[in-house]
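Amino acids appear as letters; backbone shape is given numerically. Here is one record.
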Amino acid sequence: MALNLRSIVMECLVNGTGGEPAAGWNLEYDAGGSTGTFVISNGSRDFFICFHQSNSYISQVSIAASFEGVDANGFIIGESARSGPSPGFSSPHLVRSYYFLSGLAADDLRAGSWSMLADQDSCSLVWSSASSSVSPGAAMDSYSTNLRYYGGGFSFGKTSTGVGHVSGGDSSNNYLHPGDTLMVMNYPQSGLLIPSGDTVPPISAGILSNHAGSVSYGSDFTYEDVTLYPIEVYMQGSGAVGGGSLGLVRGFVHSPSIDMRIYPRHILRSMGVISQAEFEALRIKDLSSFRVSSDGYRYAYGKLADGSCKVSQMFLTDNPEVW
């Protein structure tokens, strides 16, 4: 993640790139270059997120409502600063990011792809990747780990109700789901900031999928009616804090009815998202590209081609119901 995610986040959110204006975020801190630490803030400067490369595989993420610096361990200093659900930084939010968009600048058969939606308060992205070159079309229908472990979705900033959050994280997996491993800054009923010393009550989002085993199937059928649900974040609450909704993870929808055992290109064809010609020539970097659906909105697939991740298949969309 160090080089690729830093480049994408900085160019798209802070600087602007490819003729597109920046999304309105601010660079607050930058030390160590592509293998170091950087902090950005939203347009209102009431949400700050710090990315710190712990090692070549793991990136550590921390958030705060204000910015007063970065400590010696790469954690943000500020109001309500935290990383993970435990007090302070005792259980940091980690992302195994070594293969994030692996081979982005490499040969065409290895290059990854990504799609992003962002404004001055939120950033959500999906991607597809692999650890080595894979030929187009039928060669992608593989049980090989170099295909099935790399991809997913990640989000940070404000939820639909204005709650500061990070969605997606796991130090042991190279795929991420925005409904799995969440971190938030506000209590649901009051909207008040969670003090750094408080343990956050359990939070969850997403739907568990019904599947058996890892990806190993093609599909010749077409889903006639796929229901896509927003990803809503909930806090269970505790004896001292009331539970409730923390809003939607902006930009994401998911469906438990799409079988996770199906190869990625077959999922897109079975949903009617790609034509037969595209299906035959699809590359890794084509999986997570935005495509216009029958409802007129764009959808990009967050590749989750692995049965060990039990949350649902998901997509990034500019449908205004969730963005």
About this structure: Residues 2-317 form one domain.
